[in-house]
Design goal:
With 195 residues, this protein is mainly α. The protein is built from eight helices and two strands, in the order αααββααααα. 30% of the residues are buried.
Length: 195
């Protein structure tokens, strides 16, 4: 608990700095150090009695680094809208879900529910950005939405057998293709066809 509390205080400080200034190297250093230490600790010291503390820390840390990514984008205008830092968007998804899967592997449907939880977090941040600055944050919103869709897609095979998975993915592919047609986006149509 003291290690996680100390890490959370440092991460909140990094998020506070990101709200005032674009300092990507500090954001990345904090992200890599936090998830690196958490991974090493989980491999060497995790025990089932630490489950609740680890869950709270993991969810809080993912939320802090997603908020840091949103603040960084807010303070970093780009040519096509505000700049979205891919490392801070995809990093918490990959590292966080890896740690989450390790925490819940002993529960039935634990990984599937974890994937849905991550999807909900990313949808929440996308909705927040959509309400705040729709035009400026377009790239950020699209990235958050794409990651959320990826987690929902991942939850399907983690919870269902092959027949239901193929049916759900076919339906999702048809939906992605339809949205790609409606929005005249070839990448979404290609994704729908591939899925």
């Amino acid at each position: 608990l003291p290690l996680f509390a100390y890490g959370t205080v440092l991460n909140l400080a990094i998020m506070g700095i990101a709200g005032r200034r674009s300092w990507r190297s500090l954001n990345l250093l904090g992200f890599l150090a936090t998830f690196g230490i958490a991974t090493l600790w989980s491999l060497n010291s995790y025990a089932p009695q630490h489950y609740l503390i680890c869950q709270v820390f993991l969810v809080g840390t993912v939320a802090i680094y997603l908020a840091t990514a949103v603040l960084y984008a807010h303070n970093t205008p780009g040519r096509y809208g505000n700049f979205a830092d891919g490392t801070l968007l995809f990093g918490p998804a990959l590292a966080g879900f890896g740690l989450q899967a390790g925490l819940v592997h002993r529960f039935e449907y634990g990984s599937a529910l974890g994937a849905l939880g991550f999807a909900a977090i990313y949808v929440g941040f996308a909705m927040f950005c959509l309400r705040q600055r729709r035009g400026e944050m377009r790239v950020m919103i699209e990235c958050l939405g794409a990651i959320a869709i990826g987690f929902v897609t991942l939850a399907i095979p983690l919870a269902l057998d092959a027949r239901w998975t193929s049916s759900a993915w076919a339906l999702e592919g048809a939906g992605a293709f339809w949205v790609g047609l409606r929005q005249a986006r070839w990448m979404q149509r290609l994704f729908g066809l591939a899925l």
